[in-house]
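Quick log. Single chain, no ligands specified.
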Amino acid sequence: MLYRKFLSLLAIVATAFAGFGAAPALASGTPDALIQKLGTEMIERIKADKAIQGGDFDKLSALVDELVMPHVNFQRMTALAAGRWWRQATPEQQQQLMTEFRTMLLRTYSGALAAVEDQSIRMKPMRAAADASDVIVRSEIVQPRGEPIQLDYRMHKVDAAWKIYDVNVLGVWLVETYRTQFGQEASRSGVDGLIKSLADKNREFAPGKKS
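-> predicted structure:
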């Protein structure tokens, strides 16, 4: 039940990426401007593609690879989620962890995008020094009904580019939540067992399977 609840939170993240169109224009080159730009492009592409709205995993995967992944430090995200187990993993195991983790998140997204409707996002003021290289971009999802939903991003600068490496929904940081899950599984069965657990979940939630 807890796992399903967290999947629903991740679904909000997917919806949020498709809801940035109502935000005001921001200065280019800033991390909050990047978030706005990604969201604007996502909503345009999703609304134009009925297959993605219907949960087509392959098309969603291609869209995320094209628009989102270049702006995500997914290696850092996976390493933080895996904690000490990442440092103990071989390069091959690290690659497998990243592959299975990414697939698990995308499986969640593919089921959520069909619900994209009238949500919009409200950006909050940045609270960071002008020369900061690690920041939190704060926002909230405005829904047609119900209270706004907190949605924040941890981002850091890699050379001259801003990269996302964590997401906070309703006070729950994605990396922290998965670190607990990953740590419990790896403590029982090691890095290979963690990889197998993620792969099993991906098969369970693959198209045609009942969640």
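Residues 1-12, 15-28 have pLDDT under 50 and may be disordered.
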